[in-house]
Amino acid sequence: MTDELELLRDWNADAAPLTEPARAQARHRLLNTITRTERHPDAAPSRRQALRLATAAVVTIAVTGTAVLIAADGADEGDRTDRASTNAPQMRNVGAVTVLNGAAARASKHEKPVAPRDDQFIYWKRIIKETERKTGAVKTYVDVNWDSVDGSKRSLTMELGRVIWEKPMGKNEGVWPPREWSQLKKLPTDPEKLIPGIIGVGTSDKSIDDFTAWDWYDAYFMLGELLKWPVLPEGLRPAAYEALALVPGVKATPGMKDSAGRTGVGISYPKRASEKGKYLIFDPESYEFLGFRDERTSRSGEKTYIQLSHVADWAIVDRLKQRP
Known about the structure:
The protein is of the alpha+beta class. The chain has helices at residues 7-10, 20-39, 47-64, 94-110, 181-184, 191-198, 213-227, 236-246, and strands spanning 121-132, 138-148, 155-159, 162-166, 251-257, 263-268, 279-282, 289-297, 304-317. A hairpin with a 6-residue loop joins β7 (279-282) and β8. α2 (20-39) packs antiparallel against α3, α6 crosses α8 and α7 runs antiparallel to α8 (236-246). It is globular, with a radius of gyration of 19 Å.
């Protein structure tokens, strides 16, 4: 794996081992950068560019062993004390586990294996319905994307209607989830191995029995990002659903509306304030995945938006801007 989660393993082998506090700071700086980009897309670099910046920051932390973390609201998180390890058993919401395991079973039954060539692109179309909380004004975006299968070519993405050209990855750059199909195929399809393999920096050998509260949050966040990718290697999506079911504290909320107006069950992680208002939405009977509910705040902090989204179409194509 060469994405940002593995970069610290490849930096100068002569350097002193990274301490656990430094690992935690690197991990949370990465997540904070992503969160800031999600909350301020109207003024921030693209999501993928932000992930590249976060990756560079992680490498810097690896070398220096120090970092100052900036929270989404601009506060310094460097001295926060709520990161204390806790391995105490936690109750899981039975409804959420049932839905997620049902979604895994359905995905296993209906997924169609694909094997794109390195020179191809993954085309996908995402519909975003955004509602401003205060005024109720609704705006719909149709974002289309072409991602290079092996990452060697530039890609074209859209965010809320804004066109963004993404250059090929440079040295020590990566995104989560990895865009290279070859890297996605390396991810474990065993849920209990998938979780340690994606969280944090250099912690892929950590047993889930030893996870801290922050580890579980990282796992939930990273799995949710992985599931936003429109097509995954065979077995990976079901594994991601099953892995989410292992996260203590996931909650099922009935009566959630998706971007097509369908009523479903929302799966959320209410233990973290940053996840407030964010849901994965599933059909309550078939457990088919319907889409995402998210929230964002304008840079000024004066406007908040509810976002409903789903992937409307995807395909493997031979050329940039080619449609199926």
